[in-house]
UniProtKB/TrEMBL annotation:
Protein name: Regulatory inactivation of DnaA Hda protein
A GO BP entry: DNA replication initiation
A GO term from the CC aspect: plasma membrane
Organism: Andreprevotia lacus DSM 23236
Domain Hda lid per the UniProt entry, residue ranges: 158-220
GO molecular function (one): DNA replication origin binding
Classification via PANTHER family: CHROMOSOMAL REPLICATION INITIATOR PROTEIN DNAA, DNAA REGULATORY INACTIVATOR HDA
Amino acid sequence: MKQLVLDLRLATPPGFDDFVRGDNAELLFMLSEWAARSEHTRFIYLWGESGAGKSHLLQAAAGRLGDAVHVDAATTALPWPLAADASLIVDNVGALDAEQQIRLFDHYNTLREGSGRLLAAGPLPPMLLQQQLQLRDDLTTRLGWGLVYQLKALSEPDRIAALKRHARKLGFELGDDAADYLLRHAARDLGSLSALLELANERALSLKRQVTIALVREVLHPPAA
């Protein structure tokens, strides 16, 4: 019988401290201020390419704040009604259907007139959400009223640093050669790279091996059965 090696470490929730800043230091500071309920950062919209880390940062903000209403528009409907002093976090605003766009527009007005706050994320800046994804003009205008930040993609050294940091969270050290191999032979977005690291860690634990470039190669190109 094959012996299974169980990894009993608890998953660590996403946080600001484990996000490699790269060229996003100002954005990280503003998100921390938002999560601290600063009056000057009540409304923030951030955008960037898929895999840049938008969902990670929104989850980190939700974890820091504690009582935020956190919704992924790609999978979950916005709540109704919403208190005027609520903290609302909405991921993937580009996925909002017509009814949900109206609801978010109403929520924005409610939060602005009260003491609430909104943190939202999407794939494009507010103006292009309307032009390319046909979101309502009045909604995209509201999203542009607050602070708007582009989440900039990490440089290659920063991507390697992010991979090594994720590997340490999983409990192992990732060598430069294995990190470089991943960047050259796998999808370059951090979400996909992190998932591959987790697969490599599971394989290493089950085989009682180290995560080396050879093992990473096996994960990316499994041998035929």
